[in-house]
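Practice problem. Given the sequence and the SMILES for adenosine-5'-triphosphate, write out the predicted structure.
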Amino acid sequence: MAWGNPSSEAVSPPSPALEVTDLCFGWPNGSAALDHCDLRLPGPGLWMLVGGNGSGKSTLLRLIAGLLEPSGGRVALTLKPALVFQNPDHQLLLPSCGTDLQLGLVQGLPAPERQARVSAALAQVGLGGFEGRPIHTLSGGQKQRLAIAGALAGDAGLLLLDEPTALLDPESQREVLQLIERLCHRRERPLSALWITHRLEELDHCDAAAQMERGRAGAWQQGPALRRRIESRLPPLPGGRADG
Ligand SMILES: Nc1ncnc2c1ncn2[C@@H]1O[C@H](COP(=O)(O)OP(=O)(O)OP(=O)(O)O)[C@@H](O)[C@H]1O
Ligand SMILES: [Mg+2]
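Answer key:
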């Protein structure tokens, strides 16, 4: 899978950050997790996905990240993706914050540059000066912010967040959500984030949200409107190309 500016002959309109077209995936046991799914992220911003258990949200993120191979359709990316999981203990590997972030850096950088990137990434997530802190001394919210710093240090432009606040207390949940909102709306190099949630109140903070059902994503909607729709148990909007 390739990302980045394809060539000097690139012309308008600009490519979307992510375009998923007609994507299909079935598990070996026969269960179809994605069924001709279309999804398009028009640009930087915080884009949310909701949907019932088993509707295919996590499978979609894994396909976008290249961890699974689709059985049909395609994923086109213009940005480097990074996954952030529900449980940060599943992705933080080394004992201290600094050494863990070093792991995700692109290869071949000189040592001072590596240090500078790690420090800058920590500062961006509110963990400035935490280079030497043992990871086991961090709170759940701090660990999640460290996982996000790992994506920043590795130069990811597209964050794929799979229920990143599910295990956090309300204050840490707010902190992580506000951090992502800030990163997605900053003036310099704003990020694109695709955020899966079951916490409907989070929909009030996104740029748009789509509902997954039986392996397909519906059209983009205003987050609060989709929240009301789900809370009042109205049927989801039909699936199809979501073009923001
Ligand atoms: N490793 C696996 N092996 C076989 N089937 C799987 C596997 N992982 C997921 N599935 C199936 O794929 C379908 C989609 O699952 P997925 O985990 O993507 O749903 P989800 O929308 O993320 O659900 P949840 O909200 O519970 O996290 C489900 O039917 C699920 O049982
Ligand atoms: Mg899931």
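Check your answer against the key. The radius of gyration is 18 Å.
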